[in-house]
Write a structure and sequence with these properties.
The chain is an alpha/beta fold and 391 residues long. 38% of the residues lie in helices and 13% in strands. It has helices spanning 2-5, 17-24, 35-44, 79-88, 108-120, 158-171, 181-211, 216-224, 247-257, 263-284, 315-324, 366-370, and strands at 10-13, 47-50, 61-64, 96-100, 128-132, 151-155, 175-177, 295-299, 328-332, 353-356, 374-377, 388-390. Bound molecules: nicotinamide-adenine-dinucleotide.
Length: 391
């Protein structure tokens, strides 16, 4: 949509037919894009979706933005990236720019994508330009979007760099030129790893404060009064979504490939993964010990407020730990209609304790408080109310 707004004609290729049909019917699958905005682009003839990779032949710029998840061993799974590169390659025209926006380890563009495209491209496509420009979107963020978030651009050579800068300068307020694709790829991993380790630090710190009767949020607020050298991060159930829990493991894997180690990052990952169990224990400690199978209501299952995205949500592990301890668990999230095959319950579900895991907009927990239900607030959003205990 940022490219459409900049005057580009855009074709979205996706191999998931239902999503293509949904988009072409004018229904946006992305929270930050309204149906009205999508429909206007379609009506104007500026945007359409297709499953047909031959549409690539019409493009002067191709951006690859497929998911880059982890495999069963929690190592980079770039199969979708390889598939996408393989899918576009036979249709890449001469003088076309190919950009990888997917998050991956340094060297992915040079060592994976370029060899695939070069080996499968049409014979008359002698010149193809390549760059890395990692996506930086923050879903649900009302202040920062594609347009006003500067975009890193690292081309494989000078000609690629100027083509890529021209494209991103047309759709963003600022494109930031870096010397190689590897710098752009590494910067993306650093950005998200920065968040992971700071969240882990505050999650660990929270446990120390709680054990000593100190409210960690008051401590964070106090430290935040320092005008330099400190940035507040808040504790929570853990980290979720497809960026913060995933991207740092691309970094740790990449470190190992080069004979190095990213022990600090691995430690942060372990601390965050231990949080759901800690939260489960804290919540169950709030229940009368005579109740053998306490009923626990989880409020908010999406990985962050304002979105219905449950990918990698730490709430899954929280629920599992609660169940292992014998709890009967139900959940409520106004933005998630179905979660792991189960329907939500209403806020009037009878429970022994509630855990506010993700504070969704419009979620009103006062009726629980009125009923005398104790709440463990993992979001620092319900303050100074009787029966609410902060993480
Ligand atoms: N969404 C974000 O908030 C965000 C932020 C920063 C970076 N990223 C990065 O952007 C990349 C994409 O993430 P996303 O959240 O937009 O993914 P997504 O899951 O929302 O969407 C990607 C789409 O790619 C399609 N797809 C998968 N394989 C394909 C293939 N071979 N050919 C064509 N289509 C294919 C899927 O069907 C899906 O519709 C990832 O590397 C992610 O780390 C995402």
């Amino acid at each position: 949509m940022a490219a459409v707004a900049a005057g580009w004609a855009v074709i979205g290729i996706d191999n998931f037919e239902a999503k293509v049909a949904q988009i072409n019917s004018g229904s946006s699958p992305v929270e930050d894009i309204s149906d009205v905005q999508l429909q206007a682009a379609i009506t104007k003839g500026s945007y359409k979706a297709t499953t047909d990779f031959s549409a690539v032949a019409q493009a002067s710029v191709i951006t690859i933005c497929v998911p880059t998840p982890l495999d069963d061993k929690r190592e980079p799974d770039i199969a979708l990236l390889r598939n996408a590169a393989t899918g576009i390659a036979p249709f890449v025209s001469n003088e076309t720019l190919v950009v990888s926006e997917s998050t991956s380890y340094p060297g992915t563009l040079r060592d994976i994508i370029i060899p695939i495209v070069d080996s499968l491209k049409p014979k008359d496509s002698s010149t193809v330009y390549f760059a890395s420009a990692p996506e930086r979107v923050d879903p649900g963020n009302a202040n920062w979007n594609q347009k006003n978030t500067p975009r890193l651009v690292g081309g494989i050579d000078d000609a690629s760099q100027s083509k890529a800068l021209a494209f991103y300068e047309s759709i963003c307020n600022a494109a930031v030129s870096v010397s190689t694709p590897e710098v752009a790829e590494a910067a993306k991993l650093l950005e998200n790893t920065f968040r992971l380790v700071n969240i882990a630090l505050v999650n660990e710190f929270t446990q120390l404060c709680s054990a000593n009767g100190i409210n960690v949020h008051e401590v964070i607020d106090a430290a935040s009064s320092k005008p330099y050298g400190f940035m507040p991060f808040r504790p929570g159930v853990g980290v979720g979504g497809h960026c913060i829990p995933v991207d740092p493991l691309y970094l740790t894997w990449w470190a190992r490939q080069n004979g190095g180690a990213a022990g600090f990052v691995e430690s942060a990952d372990a601390i965050n993964h231990a949080m759901p169990k800690y939260v489960a224990q804290r919540a169950l400690a709030m229940v009368d010990s005579s109740i053998t199978n306490p009923k626990v209501l989880i409020l908010g299952v999406a990985y962050k407020p304002g979105v219905g995205d449950v990918r990698e949500t730490p709430v899954s592990e929280l629920r599992d730990h609660l169940k292992v301890q014998g709890a009967v668990v139900a959940w409520h999230d106004p933005l998630v209609p179905v979660w792991e095959g189960l329907e939500p319950v209403d806020l009037d579900w009878e429970c022994d304790v509630a855990i506010l895991a993700t504070k969704q907009p419009g979620m009103d927990v006062t009726q629980l408080i009125t009923r005398g239900v104790q709440i463990l607030d993992c979001t620092n959003s319900v303050k100074d109310l009787a029966g609410v205990i902060s993480l």
